[in-house]
Amino acid sequence: MALIIKKEYLSPLVVRLRIDAPRIARKRRAGQFIIVRPAADGERIPLTIANANADEGWIEIIFQIVGRGTTLLASLGEGQEIPDVAGPLGRPTHIETFGRCVCIGGGVGVAPLYPIVCALTSAGNEVTTIIGARNKDLLILEAEMQAASQRLLVATDDGSKGVHGFVSTIFQSLVDAGESFDFGVVIGPVLMMKATSKLTVAAGVPT
Length: 207
What we know:
Distance between the termini: 37 Å
Helix content: 25-40%
Structural class: alpha/beta
Number of helices: 6
Radius of gyration: 17 Å
Shape: globular
Strand content: 35-45%
Strand order of the largest sheet: 6-1-2-5-4-3-7
C-alpha cells in the first residue's frame, strides 16, 4: 500500500497525487512509470512518474479521469492508501548532453514530458519547452515547466493564453525564424504527435 500525501486538481478532470513511495523515488529515472491499482479488484493503470523527491521519499502521478479505473483513483483522498503500486518500470528516456533541445507537450502529455525536461536541463542542455491545450484552463504544469526550461512557449487552440494556435504552430515559427535544435521530444495526443513530429523531422531534429 502507498499513502496519498497530497491531492490536487490541475484542471477539472486532471488530478495530481503525491504518494509516499521512498524506494521508487530513489530508483526512478526520467521516462519510467508505475502501475497502480486503486482497489483490490480494480484494473491495473500504468502512469508515468511525473515528479519525485528521493530525499523526502515521494513520487507524483498526474492523470486524466477517463474511465472507471481513473475515476476510482481520483476518489481517493489525502491520508488514504492506494492498495497496489508497482515500479519503477520501463526503459528510462535516453538522456545526454545533446545541445539545444526542444520539448513539446500537448494536453495531459505535458505531465510525462516534465521529468524529461528536468533531466535534459540537469544534463546541461539548453531546453526550449512548448506546451499547449485547448484553452488556458486546461494548461498544466506551466510554472514547473517555466522553472525547468530555459524558455517556455505556450499555445492554446482558442487563443485564451499564449499563441492562438497549436504547439506545432510555435515550433514552425521558430524554424522559420532560423532556429535549429539538436534533439526533440514530442508527447501528447496521437494526432498532435503525428503532426508535430513530422515538422521536427522535416527540420532535421532527431525526435
